[in-house]
Design goal:
It comes from Nannocystis exedens. By secondary structure, this protein is α+β, with helices and mostly antiparallel strands. The chain has two domains: about 5-155, 2-Layer Sandwich (Fructose-1,6-Bisphosphatase, Chain A, domain 1), CATH 3.30.540; about 160-285, D-Maltodextrin-Binding Protein, domain 2, CATH 3.40.190.80. Helices cover about 35% and strands about 25% of the residues. It has eight helices and 14 strands. It has helices spanning about 5-25, 30-35, 45-65, 95-100, 175-185, 200-205, 220-235, 270-285, and strands spanning about 35, 45, 70, 85-95, 105-115, 115-125, 130-135, 140-145, 150-155, 165-170, 190-195, 210-215, 240, 260-265. The strands form four sheets. The protein has a seven-stranded mixed sheet with strand order 3-4-5-6-7-8-9, sandwiched between helices. A three-stranded antiparallel sheet has the order 12-14-13, with helices on one face. The chain is globular, with a radius of gyration of 18 Å. The termini are far apart.
């Protein structure tokens, strides 16, 4: 029986250590973080991103030498992981823009894929003192959130109806397409929670605070979604691309080029059907 207890123990410890490093830099302010823009409009990077990236990659490779590790700040050789069954996807800080501004909606994310399926994920929102983890395999389906006091609570997605849906959307990358989604699903502004980080947003769905996240364009990467997807799978939620196709975890193609839809699962197909005319208009593509 594959319970992944050794992997989970290590990754929880690594995430907490990484969170402490990130908070130390953030407390030091702009001079300590040294944020700068990456080439090709790939967003900001800070000293914390690069240091945590190096530490996590080294620790995972030392603990599991047969595994591949693909991390955001060292992804140039990611294609070499294509033929390895077990692959870790690491985002040292998801939500760097918010992190660099001193906000709390960012996360350290460590996820494990086996045969292209996310089976384990840790999302540590260090700024909010919230650590979530999930394991989703045929032998084990469990997801937990640990608060600042160390109290652990099982994660549970909501069962809200289509008429009650709560949306979570981007804080730093607001899009007119989000307003179109809200109109199509009749979601009023007061039921739109705006946050940074894919992991933070998906975490709100896994906890039942929100029900839906739509990323209406390309831009997210495998390390953005692997760990959160394991959490959401464990509580019965769903993530697909905008047309309803499963997300593909292949390190030879790092981007989710067809956007994504994450939901509490109960009405995923109806949500996809409701936004399909919008999606076809956005992409003008024959996907189907």
């Amino acid at each position: 029986m594959a319970t992944f207890d050794p992997e989970l123990r290590l990754v929880l410890s690594l995430a907490r250590e990484a969170g402490a490093i990130a908070l130390a830099y953030q407390t030091g302010g702009a001079d300590a973080m040294q944020a700068q823009d990456k080439p090709d409009d790939e967003g900001p990077v800070t000293r914390a991103d690069t240091e945590i990236n190096a530490r996590l990659v080294a620790a995972l490779r030392a603990a599991f030498p047969g595994d591949a590790v693909v991390a955001e700040e060292s992804a140039d050789d990611a294609a070499a992981a294509a033929d390895v069954s077990r692959c870790w996807y690491v985002d040292p800080i998801d939500g760097t823009a918010e992190y660099a501004r001193g906000e709390t909606c960012w996360a350290i994310q460590i996820g494990l894929c086996i045969g292209g399926e996310p089976v384990l994920g840790v999302v540590y929102e260090a700024g909010a003192a919230r650590l979530s983890w999930g394991v989703c395999t045929p032998d084990r389906r469990e997801a937990v959130v640990v608060d600042a006091g160390g109290a652990a609570t099982p994660l549970r997605a909501s069962h809200r109806s289509l008429a009650e849906l709560r949306l979570v959307s981007s804080l730093s990358h607001a899009s007119p397409k989000t307003l179109e989604v809200m109109q199509a699903l009749r979601i009023p502004p007061e039921r739109n929670l705006r946050l940074g980080s894919v992991g933070v947003k998906v975490g709100t769905i896994a906890r039942g605070e929100a029900d839906l996240y739509v990323h209406p364009r390309s831009g997210t990467k495998l390390w953005d979604t692997c760990a959160p997807w394991a959490l959401l799978r464990a509580v019965g939620g769903k993530i697909t691309d905008l047309w309803g196709h499963p997300l593909v975890y292949d390190p030879r193609r790092l981007g989710h080029d067809n956007g994504l839809v994450a939901s509490h699962g109960a009405h995923h197909d109806e949500i996809l059907a409701a936004i399909r005319p919008l999606v076809d208009d956005w992409f003008r593509s024959p996907h189907g």
